[in-house]
Every structure is written in C-alpha cells, then in structure tokens.
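Could you join me in thinking about how sequence relates to backbone shape in a protein? Label the sequence line and the structure token line clearly, so we can match residues to local backbone shapes. Once you have written the record down, we can walk along the chain together.
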Amino acid sequence: MDINVALQMRMIDAVETVKHTNPMAGSVTNSVTMNFVANAQLAIGGSAAMVYLADEAVAIAQAGGASYLNFGTFEPFYAQTFPQMAQALCDAQKPWVIDPVGIGIGGLRTQILAEFKAYKPSIIRGNASEMIALAALWELDAGLAKANVRGVDAQDTVEEARLAAISLARWTGGAVAVSGERDLITDGHYLVRSTGGSHFMSKITGAGCSLGGVMAVYATASTPFVAAVTGAAVYNLAGERAGREASGPASFQERFLDHLYQATAQDIAAQPLDIEELV
C-alpha cells in the first residue's frame, strides 16, 4: 500500500478512536498555558488532567492512556515530579510527550532534560532551537550546529533542525515534531512536512504547548509517529480555518478551538503532507 494512503488511514483511525473513547492524557504543563492545553485536548475528544506534585503525577501516569510533560514555568518541586513521572511511564510502558521549553535557561531544567535521555520519550515536540539544543545535550551527533535559543523562541529554522530531529527520533525509537511555518515530523525512518496554520498562532500563548497535549491524546490511540503527524495536521487545518475568520489574536483563539472540535477525521487526513523516506 502507498505510504501516503497508509498514513492517512492510520490518522483517520486515531482521530475516530479518540472521539469515540474520550481517552485521558494527563499533563504536568506550563502554568501560563495550562487552560489552553486542557481546552485543546477536550476539543479533539480527549480528557485532560493537570497536576504538579510527584505523587499525583505518578498516579495520573498510571491511570491515563498517555501523558504530557512540559518544561515551561519550571518549579523547584519538578526535580521530584518529572523523574518520578517519567519512571512510572516507562515502567507502565505508556506513551508520553515532552516539550523541552526553555532548554539551557537554568541548571535544574537542563539536568532533568539530560536525565530524560535514558527514559526515551515517545514524542519530543518543540521548536527548532529546542530540538538542536536537546540533541546536543544528549550528545547524539557531533556534527550538530549550536542552537540559538532565546527564552522560549526559536532562532533557528525548522530545516536547520532536521539532523537533530532525526538523531533524536532514532535514539528514542519514537517521534520528533519540530514546529514552525512548515512543521517537520520524523520517526527516523520517514520524514513528514505539514503546512498550514496561521500567522495568528505566533500571537497567542500556548499554541505549541497545547499541540504537545493534543499529540499525547492521539498517542493513546496510535503510534508516536502517527500521533505526532495527526496532531500537526489538525493544528494546521484548524489554524487555517480560524485564521480566515479571525480579526485578531483573541477571536483567532476562540475560533481555533471551535475548528479543533469541528474537524473530522477525513478533513484531518486530507491535510497536505509531504512524505520523505530516509536512508
């Protein structure tokens, strides 16, 4: 079967399964964007649970179908929460998504991200600079360029993160999603580019964070690669549709959630994808 058709069929199955089963994907996420993350997960048909403390994070990891760990607005007690949650997810063999927001800003954040190399997250989602920085931190390829990280903003292009993304995916055995004007998603064997979205996505807080939460929901119903591609596709579709209707960032955010909710499995699978087989 053609790879494009096979991927579309698996995307449709993932979307329909989520809509029919309402799976929970718990999160320890950025306090600035927590509300948007939860609303996006609910809009696509999932269930959200937001926690901070280590024992609660372990309980959510065990109870949910997948989990999302976001390193934004880092708190000191995450030194216990993140490693314990990662260990619980690995022990239970549950899929999980990390977003290495702010990598390189502080010592504790960087230390925990370094430790996550051994846990091998199912999906890593972030901007180009974060992917380059994480691959360098994990010492996955001596030829990687130095990342240009400025807070939570990317200073590198998506294509400049290609090698880092492939290296990360091949190490984890999962998927890596690099967000930008043209998203790049890879499992180390195939590389997908997904287009769409809106310029308003850079004018609201939480577009990237909520995408990680949505990918976690889809990971309850499919492989990491299919979940990541499906998440990128529905975001680009909803962004396009919302952008045509919105008069500014506030109306865009409202319409974006509506279009996440309204998107059908067939709509999402029909979103343009450029698929490349890697050697």
